[in-house]
Amino acid sequence: MNKVSSAKILIVDDMPDNARLLMNILSRKGFELICAYSGQMALELLQTVTPDLILLDVNMPGMSGYDLCEIIKQNRSIKDIPVIFISALHDLQNIVHGFALGGVDYITKPFQLEEVLARVNTHVSLHQLRKQLQIENQSLQSQLQQQLNIDQNLYEDLSKAIQRQELELYYQPIVCIDNGKIDGFEALLRWHHSRRGRVSPVEFIPLAEQTGLINSIGAWVAQESMVQLSRWHLNYPHIMISINVAGNQLLDPNFFSIIEKGINTTGVCPAQVKLEITESAIITDVDRAIQQLQQLRSLGLKICLDDFGIGYSSLSRVQDFPIDVIKIDRSFIQQKNWTIAHIIALLADSLNVCTIAEGIETVEQLKKLREMGCDYAQGFLFSTPLNALDATNLIAKGSLAVDIFQR
């Protein structure tokens, strides 16, 4: 016996003769049949039984078929059960009204064997197919979440974080390595969850990248960064902003228009905007990434190659990248791998691009980088990431910890 013929059907009709006739037609095909002789009786049955289809008479005393259908469609647990109306009324107005309430079809009286079977089989098949697809979709989602190690609750909260205004940008200064003057800031995303408190970027950024949320979140970051830059430029026109761009964003066909719109709506000077792209993001699709970077650079903004030296292309293709800045990864600084850091600085000099060393925490590290000709520095030695107000106050000072640079 196939799945369709073994389906469970609820017949709701106040006329026992009509119900018996339908039962005779459908029982021959192996359907499991349940009868209710009023709307109230049907509701009581639906508390314990979940049919695959409901055949519902329109004209019943007390609670009409239309009334019962409306109640069914408002109940989350049974609203997806297809309802076929049974009626001797053929006028268009009644048919449209039934569809508007959520009915899927009509069977007219007197019953025709072929019509009843055709309509019942069609909608039972569709309902069972939808259920199977839902089961498979849930299974695939579960497998995907396990493979990606996704926290579903965190994902759902992150998808609503912009709307709930839980995201905020902090700004870490980038300073001239010779005199400590503030050249600009890197915009860093922070999430203040309404219940969990502050969620670490280490936790939610990979989640955003894995699930595709990074595109909408990244668009918000870019716009907010340029809005803040436009405010700073009212008094401090030399300040630059560095905006992190994930690989998914870079390869998004809409990314160029997002950046272009941000520049146009805020009125910032494009030359004061830097997009930080990780080497691994470019490696995903090198030729396409280079084409996108060239297009972005045509707007007049600058491209910074972030985390340089820890990727795969490094020395082999870096000369092909349309970049203006190379950022020396913090791992080389923390591990005191000065040979690699120096090679990167020399490479940058040969390509006529600037260098920024990140993760500077000690004066000794600063001195080493200054000796090898690094241009700019960033790290806790100078400042932790700051909110917009504190960053503005820091700009007003003009330079950071002058005594550090005089040692």
Q: What does this molecule look like?
A:
Strand 11 (302-308), helix 13 (314-317) and strand 12 (325-328) form a beta-alpha-beta unit. The chain contains 18 helices and 14 strands. It is an alpha/beta fold and 407 residues long. The model has no long low-confidence stretch (mean pLDDT 88). The longest helix is centred in the first third of the chain and has 36 residues, at 113-148.
CA gyration radius, whole angstroms:
33 Å
SS content category: alpha/beta
Helix content: 40-55%
First CA to last CA: what distance? 88 Å
The residue-averaged pLDDT reads 88
Briefly summarize what is shown.
The chain has 407 residues and is of the alpha/beta class.
Question: What is the strand and helix layout of this fold?
Answer:
Elements (H helix, E strand, L loop, with lengths): L7 E5 L3 H12 L4 E5 L2 H7 L7 E5 L7 H9 L9 E5 L4 H10 L3 E4 L4 H36 L3 H8 L7 E10 L5 E12 L3 E3 L1 H11 L2 H19 L7 E6 L1 H4 L4 H12 L6 E6 H5 L2 H12 L4 E7 L5 H4 L7 E4 L1 H5 L3 H13 L3 E5 L4 H9 L4 E3 L9 H10 L4 H4 L2
Parallel strand pairs: 1-2, 1-3, 3-4, 4-5, 7-9, 9-10, 10-11, 11-12, 12-13, 13-14
Antiparallel strand pairs: 6-7, 6-14, 7-8
What attributes characterize this protein structure?
Rossmann fold, 20% strand, TIM Barrel, alpha/beta, 8-stranded mixed beta barrel, 407 residues, 18 helices
